[in-house]
Amino acid sequence: MPLRTTSTTIAPATIDPNFEIIEQRRAECIEFLDAELLKKADITYEPGTYCDGQFDGWSCFPDTPSNTIAKVPCPPLFEFDPTRFAHKVCESDGNWFRHPETNKTWTNYTTCIDFGDYQLRRHVNLIYVTGYTISLIAILLSISIFCYFRSLKCARITLHMNLFASFAANNFLWLIWYHVILDTNILNGKDQWPCVMLHLILHYFLLTNYAWMLCEGFYLHTVLVSAFISEQKLVRWLIALGWSAPAVFLIFYGILRGYVSTDEDRTMCWMNESPYTNVLVAPVCLSMLLNLLFLCNIVRVVLLKLKAPASMSNGPGSGPSRNILQAFRATLLLVPLLGLQYILTPFRPGKDHPYEATYEIISAFTASFQGLCVATLFCFCNGEVMAQVKRRWRIVFFRPRANSYTATQVSFVRHGQAHTAGEDKV
Known about the structure:
Structural class: mainly alpha
Number of strands: 6
CATH superfamily of the largest domain: Rhodopsin 7-helix transmembrane proteins
Largest sheet: 2 strands, antiparallel
Order of helices and strands: HHEEEEEEHHHHHHHHH
Helix content: 55-70%
Distance between the termini: 132 Å
Shape: elongated
Strand order of the largest sheet: 1-4
Radius of gyration: 34 Å
Strand content: under 5%
CATH topology of the largest domain: Rhopdopsin 7-helix transmembrane proteins
């Protein structure tokens, strides 16, 4: 008796991004069904009493008696939960159920998806897309303002511009990654170098975000603590550190993941978690820890400096409380600039935890809208920037009107003088 082959209803090589996994499952299914066929070589089934075993393109279903439902664990693909079960109906005539719209044998995989979790992921992704898009627009507008007004050029604004450029690149690349990689089938095939390069570039600019937040914290701390220092020289060193240090860690990560890791770590455009990801996590944790120390010392120094005029304030006890409020307000402004909201990121609740959804939504808001928050606080609401914008606004819109009004007055006076001269002659 010849061994049985299986039929498929889809073409995994052109549709599924999990092509290698599916091919392995197909081979295992063929081996399983052929073994079952050998076991039942001496058994004769009456026609219409069972449905032939089949590999449907994702899962393997054994021979199933008619009028029964065959259940198999959900495949580890896409958003499927492997602990759930997919099912296929064997009808009374010994044929697998066919979908009425396509007239093809159909397996019910809807039970493999946790729709509550699926909807949460969709909402979280929507927050990320919206936040990164708005932040990108705000950051680009901020950079344009800083570049347009030359009078704003100083060491502090130079650092802000580098930080904003890092934010803009990271936000733009994340949007490309989401729409081009995650929303398409680019993960197919064996040539994945383009998306691997995008993965590396995206993570480089992600590291530069934290590097520049560290540079901002170090600059503020150094200016407050060390009064006698060359700011221009400090800025040059920070520019070199902010753009070059992340490249060192990323090259080390790329070498380890590309040449030392297992084949499984190198699939799916390196999207899967890998032990070598810690090479990127370590500098991020270090930058947040250092910024936290910088912030604590900055607040201490600010409070000490604010206590001096407090003794000369009118009325006893009115100064310190106001100074503490000012220091607290300054601290809140520095939190998004230094990225200290990410300190809570490692404390992630486990799956199915009551606060998992809350954590995911808050993380999406803080990560995607950080660029908008920083651009608003340090550009749109900056006193120097607002003064320059108002000054330019008055020059552009009010001076032409004033000149026109003056010209009208001069013309009227001249006309009156000419008319008076004419009357005198008469």
